[in-house]
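Curious: can you check?
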Amino acid sequence: MSEFRSILGKIIPFLGRIGADKKDTEEVRLQKALLVTGAFMFIFPGTLWGVLYFVLGDPLAGAIPFSYAIILSLSIVVFGITRRYHFFRSSLLVLVLLLPFTLMITLGGFVNSSGVILWSLLSPFGALLFDEPRRAPRWLLAYLGLVLLSGFIQPYMPNRHPLAPSVITFFFVMNIGTVSTIAIVLLGYFVRQRNIFQEKSETLLYNILPREIAAILRDDHRTIADHFSEASVLFADMVNFTPMSAEMSPVAMVDLLNEIFTHFDGLVEKYDLEKIKTVGDCYMVAAGVPRLRADHAQAIVRLALEMLDYVGSRSFNASRPVNFRIGINTGPVLAGVIGRKKFIYDLWGDAVNIASRMESHGSGGIIQITGATYERIRDEFICEPRGAIQIKGKGKMDVWYVTGTKDAVKSKASESAN
């Protein structure tokens, strides 16, 4: 089964290039690939059925599926040249709907034709896959109308060339089995590809929003606004970003930020924190939102230390040495999503504003924290008092620098003793 899927996975993309257009969306490309594949899958049984009826002595009945195979082949060629997808799709659905009915009439009714009209069921099925779903009921009604008509005219159908019961049974098995196989193969591949597209969409959404928030937006569609009594917020900003932007090309500047922030993203994931946003060269992270955690301050300080270690240990392709200021604060925050387009999960409140001030009033290569954060981490981290600084809207505030972890100092002392 896996080998069959592998082969199908190679054949369908190849066939999908027939009639392909650069402007096609992924869904349209999938529909075209499956429709062309379905057309090729119809050609083989159409040819086989035609040959069998010729062998059984009914050239008129054999000419119908054989002509069907020829018309399908020409349609694929025309589609590859003109790329008129809507015309190709409509003509294929009409052929699939009407030709089995015509063959049934030629063979003398539903029973003698071994239920060949079952092939017409692929018309509404194909409309559901390849056309707008709202149009599929029309094709279904047309199919059901032909089925009712077949039942109505059955008593009046002449039995021109009666086939042996064993032959009729054989064709019943072939018709049912082939139609079922084509339907399952096309539907299975379509569902599998749609699942892949869905996974890509969800992955993209989860890269933009926290999983908990994305789930609410997807399922509940309610306004998202939550108050957290305590969380920690970090701002990191590149030193001398403005003069570097003037000295470096736009591509080089973006590549530099992408390299650094991509590594920061990995660290955020490592500590199970939440990246809120980047604005230019500013990188914002929160701990304790939307997932509550008691060690939010400790986790975000460890992140800050690793961020500075990474920047300090690397040699970047930049016009000046790369360095970051980092500010952290702890306190109550409001979190939520605003808007319907290009929305983000954002934080508001004094705690956020003060964290931003910690960064802007800091120095390169330094992690500056407030007293609220200091009270929660002082037993685990080495902190040096800077004194009081003037904070806009808050007056003077005592702040500290974080220089390392006490565990690291103990580890070095133990190694020295040994």
Remarks:
- The first strand starts at residue 225 and ends at 238.
- The radius of gyration is 34 Å.
